[in-house]
Amino acid sequence: MNTNEMIRVEKLNKFFGDLHVLKDIDLKVNESDVVVLVGASGSGKSTLLRCLNFLEIKNDGKIIIDGEQVEKETHDLNKIRERVGMVFQHFNLFPHKTVIENVIEAPTQVKGIAKSKAIQEGKELLDKVGLGDKYDVYPSTLSGGQKQRVAIARALAMKPDVMLFDEPTSALDPELVGEVLATMKELAEEGMTMVVVTHEMGFAREVGDWVVYMHDGKIVEYGHPSELFDNPKEERTKAFLSSIL
Amino acid sequence: MSHLIEVFIDTYDLFLNGLWITLKLSAASLFIAFFIGLFFAILKISNIKILEWIADAYIWLVRGTPLIVQIFVLYYGLVEIVLIPMFWAGAAGLAFHSGAYIAEIIRGAIQSIDKGQMEAGRSLGMTTGKTMKRIILPQAFRRAVPSLGNQFIIGIKDSSLVSFIGLQEIFGVASSGGSNNFDYLTYYFIAAIYYLVIVLALTLIVNYIENRMAKSD
Ligand SMILES: Nc1ncnc2c1ncn2[C@@H]1O[C@H](COP(=O)(O)OP(=O)(O)OP(=O)(O)O)[C@@H](O)[C@H]1O
Ligand SMILES: [Mg+2]
């Protein structure tokens, strides 16, 4: 067994009622890989990400995290989620808590880390994402880009093995996209394993190790960014790429 | 007018006793009602059919019968069977009633909180219960303050009905005073003044809380 394999998905199927949203998905994410998911709206990208941290429960197939096949019957999914961080399109910061309170919430409440230690570590993370001067403000006073960087720091505070990003820059004004992508790029360079749904093809090309193109609940094509973007093999991929460029 | 002022001054110690009972009744019943409301609100959003039905049945019962009937049923039920003091029978009746409305207020407030908040908490490894307690409910309560304040005002005024089981709160004092002196209008008028003052005070408190919360946001 390859110990470098962080996530392995085999024949994953997901239904919403009669709607077949994920169809026999196979996916492998090695440690320190950055995998970028692209595809049209409704193709199942978010659902796939949400299955990976068990916010949605698969109907069928295997999800293997760090060598361990995870099933809701046999695993405490909360424990798994501690190791799989997630960043959302709309940030989902806790508006009634200050920035530092957002960051220390899970470490203190879930892991039982002492508040003083959590604050110290939280401040280091906020410094890292460039928000060293914003510890004590409420999220409502931040720009979208700053909010998303706090959300990233909040997820990192749990010291996850993997980070999932669901369109982290789609809700941002164009001029704020760069700062969030820069933070993500830095994270990738430090070796974080990441699965990223994004429409930022520049980011996919520059930071992605793999690009996965999804259509209608299936993985249509999978490859290195240069292969997939410059020499797509499938007609669907070509059509998709020309539609977004 | 001078007659009204005269009676007001003559009776203020009686009415202050009544006022004190009204305040104690309202505080006790609304405190209990808040937890009843929270409990049934959580049943209603539990996504477990049987629990939702229980909550629906309770709310239907409260909405479908007059408060005075609820007070009498609880009074004769409780006082005769378990021998609790009249005050607590009255408080229980009022709490049972307000609880249903508070449940609906809290349920609405919880459901108005963005779903992303629960997801964010869960994605960090927090349990549903912990996310509810630490993330959803604090936001829901803030949002519910105006409606809860309104319901508390209604609760205070409704407490006048427990005079019918014999409690000498403001309305009870006015009723006895009015009939003893054959001067109903003056006594009920004075009762109205006391209620207006309490409601004014509570309104100011609620406004103050709302303003303070608006600042911290
Ligand atoms: N909770 C749900 N209940 C029912 N259907 C759902 C639910 N969530 C998603 N769907 C459906 O599943 C399909 C895939 O949705 P998903 O959100 O995964 O797509 P996506 O690729 O992320 O799209 P987008 O780019 O718009 O975010 C869509 O048809 C969507 O309507
Ligand atoms: Mg999506």
Structure description:
The complex is a heterodimer of chains A (245) and B (217). Chain A has 245 residues and is an alpha/beta fold. In chain A, 38% of the residues lie in helices and 26% in strands. Chain A has one domain (5-94, 161-243): P-loop containing nucleotide triphosphate hydrolases (Rossmann fold, 3-Layer(aba) Sandwich). In chain A, the strands form 2 sheets. Chain A has a 6-stranded mixed sheet, sandwiched between helices. A 4-stranded antiparallel sheet of chain A has the order 2-1-4-5, with helices on one face. The longest helix of chain A has 16 residues, at 174-189. In chain A, 45% of the residues are buried. With 217 residues, chain B is mostly helical. Chain B starts with a helix and ends with a helix. Chain A binds chain B through residues 53, 55, 78-79, 81-82, 84-86, 88, 90, 92-96, 105-106, 109-110, 138, 140, 151, 154-155, 158, and chain B through 114, 116-117, 119-120, 122-127, 130, 134-135, 138-139, 142, 216-217. The complex binds adenosine-5'-triphosphate and magnesium ion (MG). Adenosine-5'-triphosphate is lined by residues 16, 19, 21, 39, 41-47 of chain A.
Summarize the structure.
Chain A is 38% helix and 26% strand.
What is the terminal-to-terminal distance of chain B?
Answer: 48 Å
CATH superfamily of chain A: P-loop containing nucleotide triphosphate hydrolases
Specify which chain pair forms the largest interface.
Answer: A-B, 26 and 19 residues
Unique ligands = adenosine-5'-triphosphate, magnesium ion
How many DSSP-defined strands of chain B? Answer: 0
Shape of chain A: globular
- Give the class of chain B from helix and strand content and strand pairing: mainly alpha
Helix percent band of chain A: 25-40%
Helix content of chain B: over 70%
Give the strand line-up of the largest sheet of chain A.
Answer: 6-7-8-3-9-10
Mean pLDDT of chain A, to the nearest integer, reads 94
Give the CATH level 1 class of chain A: Alpha Beta
Structure annotation, total helices of chain B: 8
Q: How much is the average pLDDT of chain B?
A: 93
Q: Assign the CATH architecture of chain A.
A: 3-Layer(aba) Sandwich
What name does the CATH topology of chain A carry? Rossmann fold
